[in-house]
Amino acid sequence: MSLIIIGTVAFDALETPFGKTDKIVGGAATYASLAASYFYDKVKIVGVVGEDFGQDNINKFTEHGIDIEGLQIKEGEKSFFWSGRYHNDMNSRDTLATELNVLENFDPVIPDSYQDCEYLMLGNLTPLVQQTVINRLNHRPRLIVLDTMNFWMDIMMDDLKETIRMVDVLTINDAEARQLSGEYSLVKAASKILEMGPKYLIIKKGEHGALLFHEDKIFSAPALPLAEVFDPTGAGDTFAGGFIGYLAKVGTINFTNMKNAIIFGSALASFCVEKFGTERILNLTQEEVAARVQQFVSLSSFTIEG
User: Fold this and answer.
1) What is the reported pLDDT for 61?
2) pLDDT tens for residues 154-207?
3) How far apart are CA 46 and CA 164, in angstroms?
4) How many CA atoms are closer than 13 Å to the CA of 91, on its beta-carbon side?
5) Are β-strands 210-214 and 200-204 bridged in parallel, bridged antiparallel, or unpaired?
6) What is the DSSP letter of 38?
7) How far apart, in whole angstroms, are the C-alpha atoms of residue 166 and residue 140?
8) What is the pLDDT of residues 83-107, one digit of tens each?
9) The dihedral of CA 174, 176, 177, 179: what is its sign?
10) Which of 34, 133, 242, 301 has the fewest Cβ atoms surrounding its Cβ within 10 A?
């Protein structure tokens, strides 16, 4: 049994109040698969890169035990590239450049060795590509998690809603939840979104944590207060990868394990923002991860006396 993660594998050029980078490795599938690999040893990636990506960058996946048979390498072509500049609040940013390159005609290939998929993470891509991956699997996975964004709500709402009907868990941020549902109250928004098909909904609130909704249950997860957020790029994808990686590890899908998975995903995301790109999450130790998870537990652990 395995965990498949599909999404972009890309180059990013970033500028924040703390500095700037030239091209570094990024992309939704990159962050998510690296995060998941800390909890689960059968992570398989589906994506596409150009000839410019280079073997050294591919080795970053294999060194984490990530199966790359589903990673297409297009000779003579360039990898997807995104450049952005973050504002001082680190919550808003300007896109400086987007070059689709190999992503423009991406047709996901699911190798035969991936057909044992039990867990599927659909990283941010067009809804139609996400549907294609589901349809190309011979058997429906036990758990399908979908991450998406407001861009697809703006231009492909009908296709996105069709994809949402096909999944078990949807992860979006608070602004996207309001846009998708037409409701300002996140509780009302969650109710409407759950009627669209998913069993669980995670609403990410950045520095204010995350909310988990399932039937009539709600869980509020804290965010770890950090003195400095160096680079928020990929934090949401890291969260999603840690979330599904933990669930694949424990092997039981229920509300309690979903709550735990949010904490483990949040812990990985809190590491991600401490350095540019994937630098911080490439070489974590299990002891570091465990200590960071305990910090999250301590944030909301209390007793009432009297």
Assistant:
1) 98
2) 999 999 999 999 999 999 999 999 999 999 999 999 999 999 999 999 999 887
3) 20
4) 9
5) antiparallel
6) T
7) 10
8) 999 888 777 788 999 999 999 999 9
9) positive
10) 301
Residues 242, 265: contact at Cβ < 8 Å? yes
pLDDT band for position 306 (50/70/90)?
confident
Strands in 153-285 per DSSP E: 169-173, 200-204, 210-214, 217-221
User: What number does CATH give the domain 2-299?
Assistant: 3.40.1190.20
Would you say the pTM of this structure is higher than 0.90? yes
**Residue 102 CB neighbour total at 10 angstroms:** 24
Amino acid identity at 12: D
Distance CA(41)–CA(39), nearest Å, equals 7
Round to whole Å and give the CA distance between 227 and 262.
22
pLDDT tens-digit readout, 114-161:
999 999 999 999 999 999 999 999 999 999 999 999 999 999 999 999
d(C-alpha 230, C-alpha 252), whole Å: 35
- State yes or no: pLDDT of 227 exceeds 90: no
Order across the sheet with 210-214: list the strands. Answer: 67-74, 43-50, 2-6, 117-122, 143-147, 169-173, 200-204, 210-214, 217-221
Q: What is the pLDDT of residue 302?
A: 79
Helices 174-181 & 186-194 angle (0-180, nearest 10) = 60
**Which of these, 104, 108, 99, 97, lies nearest to 47 by C-alpha position?**
108
Domain ranges in the chain are 2-299
Residue whose tokens read 């290939």: 109
Could you please report the per-residue DSSP string of 259-290?
HHHHHHHHHHHHHHTTSSTTGGGSS--HHHHH
